[in-house]
Specification:
Blueprint (H helix, E strand, L loop, with lengths): L8 E6 L5 H14 L4 E11 L5 E7 L5 E3 L15 H15 L5 E7 L1 H4 L5 H9 L4 E6 L3 H8 L3 E5 L2 H15 L3
Parallel strand pairs: 1-6, 1-7, 2-5, 5-6
Antiparallel strand pairs: 2-3, 3-4
C-alpha cells in the first residue's frame, strides 16, 4: 500500500467471523495513546438482552462515553433495532467533533441504513469533505452500496491491524507526522 496515494476515506471491509470491532478499537486506542486527536465512535462488545438478542454499544472516542445504539423490540420482532434517538445523538456527537478538527474520525458502520441513504451517511460525507481522515467499518454484504456512495474515492482495507497501520503510515507521510 505504500506506493499508493493516500485516500482519507477508508473502509475496513469485514466478513462473517472477522472481529472488526476489536481490530478498529485496538487501533483507535493505540493512536489515542500516541497523542492523536480522535473523534467519532467505534463499536464495542455486544451484550445479551432479555429478548435473546445482542445489544451493541459504541464508544465515543472524544468523551469516553459508552452508548447503546440498539433498542429491544422483543424476541419476535423482525424490525430494524437501531434506536433512532441513539442515532440522532451519535450524529450530533460526530458533527460537533468535526468542528474541532480531529486527526481522525471513526464511524462505527456503513450498514443497512447507510446503504439506503440513511443512518450516518451525512456524517461520513461531512467528515470526508472536511478533509479529515475517516475510517468506517463496512460489512462485505454492503460493499457494493459503499462503492456506489464513495465512487472510488476511498481506500478499501482488509480487516487487519496491518492494513490500518499501512493506511495511517501513508497519512502520516503525506502530512510529515510521526
Amino acid at each position: 500500500m505504500h506506493d499508493k496515494e493516500f485516500k482519507p476515506l477508508a473502509a475496513v471491509v469485514f466478513g462473517q467471523g472477522e472481529d472488526v470491532n476489536k481490530v478498529i478499537g485496538d487501533f483507535a486506542a493505540d493512536l489515542g495513546r500516541r497523542g492523536f486527536r480522535l473523534a467519532g465512535v467505534v463499536q464495542v462488545s455486544a451484550d445479551a438482552q432479555d429478548c435473546g438478542c445482542r445489544d451493541a454499544h459504541v464508544l465515543d472516542l472524544e468523551t469516553g462515553a459508552r452508548l447503546p445504539i440498539l433498542q429491544d423490540l422483543g424476541a419476535q420482532s423482525q424490525s430494524c433495532r437501531v434506536d433512532p434517538a441513539a442515532l440522532a445523538d451519535l450524529s450530533a456527537r460526530v458533527l460537533s467533533a468535526l468542528s474541532k478538527n480531529p486527526d481522525l474520525v471513526f464511524i462505527n458502520r456503513f450498514g443497512k441504513l447507510e446503504a439506503e441513504g440513511k443512518g450516518m451517511i451525512d456524517e461520513i460525507g461531512a467528515a470526508a469533505t472536511a478533509d479529515i481522515p475517516v475510517i468506517v467499518a463496512v460489512a462485505a454484504r454492503y460493499l457494493e452500496a459503499w462503492r456506489h456512495f464513495t465512487m472510488g474515492l476511498d481506500a478499501e482495507l482488509a480487516c487487519t491491524r496491518q492494513a490500518l497501520e499501512d493506511w495511517w503510515a501513508l497519512r502520516c507521510a503525506a502530512r510529515k507526522v510521526a
